[in-house]
Automatic annotation (TrEMBL):
<dbReference type="InterPro" id="IPR039156">
    <property type="entry name" value="PHAF1/BROMI"/>
</dbReference>
<keyword id="KW-1133">Transmembrane helix</keyword>
<keyword id="KW-0472">Membrane</keyword>
<keyword id="KW-0812">Transmembrane</keyword>
<protein>
    <submittedName>
        <fullName>PHAF1 protein At3g51130 isoform X1</fullName>
    </submittedName>
</protein>
<feature type="transmembrane region" description="Helical">
    <location>
        <begin position="101"/>
        <end position="122"/>
    </location>
</feature>
<comment type="similarity">
    <text>Belongs to the PHAF1 family.</text>
</comment>
<dbReference type="InterPro" id="IPR005373">
    <property type="entry name" value="PHAF1"/>
</dbReference>
<dbReference type="Pfam" id="PF03676">
    <property type="entry name" value="PHAF1"/>
</dbReference>
Length: 402
């Protein structure tokens, strides 16, 4: 039910030159792009991006950025953990990366990114700011900033708040860039080092974009599923799904129904091959399972794409909202119906507060070799099942009809 795992492999390493686009991105990486698209760009050039580190906060994945780091080339890509879109590019070692702007280059081992070189290439701008605690002067252009360390003996050259341009120190030397930040400038925020880094926001999605489109599920006497305002019922045909969602990214034949052994009422032999098949909508974070005999929908699977799960980067995040107000009565009489919603950001403890305790979990694992992240836990309720990671966040939600 997944496409081949994306890998970042390569054999060669060398100096690279990337186009610098203030307010837009660097090289093939564009501000606002989903993390899956960034990995796709990495895969297309494995000989360049041959050492790639992915960093995230395992215990609270929504608390800190998801970071793709290229240590050999000296830059980071920072993705907002909620939307999983690129919000900030940081060049943290300017001597390792050469940047091309217009017809000139700056940075890298051969072209020092001095204050004079930056000012000459990018032109005049307003005086920057001086952080006396960090000893760093930051110069700002629209969607672009350069940070320069100021030696302690020359701090008098800069004043608090807006500072004069430190083109040269009294000894004739000029400061050299220690960090470059590329960010969206539409909000007017100035982004730099330290706390100023948090001001970088993802740019608005383009008009008509389907990324992070809300998927609504209503639990009650009648279970229904809605995406883009279109109702897709259980029992719908493949033609109906094509009409509403378009061509699937992939079609996957389900070989064996692993859950049939738990159903005492199912008359099929326990070794029967399953003719059911999935429509995979990787770019929407959704799988739809059709019955192999009737060709009608029997399951929906919604993916959250959290790092630390075996399916990370196989799907984009599904931005689902499950409305449970009509469903909670038989489980938890004390829940306020106005709070009876479950989203892709909900934790398992919040789900239990809404739906009540459902008992023991089934253990799901793909084997230690193919899944280095360990097992997940599957909890079942009437018409839906939650796959929960060890940190308490939801990995997938499966909707079905009992």
């Amino acid at each position: 039910m997944q496409r081949p795992r994306r890998r970042c492999e390569g054999t060669a390493m060398g100096a690279i030159v990337l186009d610098l686009r203030p307010g837009a991105g660097i090289g093939p990486f564009t501000l606002g792009m989903p993390i899956c698209e960034a990995f796709a760009q990495i895969e297309q050039q494995p000989n360049i991006y041959d050492v790639v580190h992915v960093k995230y906060y395992d215990e609270e994945p929504l608390k800190l950025d998801i970071v793709i780091s290229f240590p050999d080339h000296g830059f980071h890509l920072r993705f907002d953990p909620w939307s999983q879109r690129l919000r900030l590019v940081e060049i943290f070692d300017v001597k390792r990366l050469q940047m091309r702007y217009a017809t000139s280059v700056i940075g890298g081992p051969s072209t020092l990114a001095t204050f004079v070189a930056v000012y000459t290439l990018f032109g005049p701008t307003y005086p920057g700011t001086y952080d006396k605690d960090r000893g760093v002067y930051t110069l700002f252009y629209p969607g672009l900033s350069f940070a320069f360390p100021i030696p302690s003996q020359y701090t008098d050259c800069c004043r608090d708040g807006e500072a004069e341009l430190p083109l040269e120190f009294p000894d004739g030397t000029t400061p050299v860039t220690c960090r470059v930040s590329i960010y969206d400038s539409s909000t007017g925020s100035k982004v730099g080092v330290g706390s100023m880094m948090d001001k970088a926001c993802t740019p608005p999605l383009p008009a008509g974009s389907l990324y992070m489109e809300e998927v609504h599920v209503k639990l009650g006497e009648e279970l229904w599923f809605s995406i883009g305002g279109q109702h897709i019922p259980f029992g719908a045909s493949p033609q109906d799904v094509w009409t509403e969602l378009g061509r699937p990214c992939g079609i996957h034949q389900k070989q064996v129904d692993q859950m049939v052994i738990h159903s005492a009422s199912d008359p099929r032999p326990r070794t029967t091959l399953c003719g059911d098949y999935f429509y995979n909508y990787f770019t929407r974070g959704i799988d739809i399972l059709f019955d192999g005999q009737t060709h009608k929908i029997k399951k929906f699977v919604l993916h959250t794409n959290y790092p630390g799960h075996a399916d990370f980067n196989s799907y984009m995040k599904c931005n689902f909202v499950i409305h449970c107000s009509d469903f909670v009565g038989s489980y938890n009489q004390d829940v306020n119906s106005s709070k009876g919603t479950i989203t892709a950001s909900s934790k398992w403890e919040q789900v239990k507060e809404i739906l009540g305790d459902c008992g023991r979990a089934a253990i799901q694992t793909q084997g230690s070799t193919s899944n280095p992240f360990g097992s997940t836990f599957v909890y079942g309720y009437q018409n839906l099942a939650f796959e929960v990671m060890k940190n308490g966040y939801i990995a997938t939600v499966t909707l079905f009809q009992s």
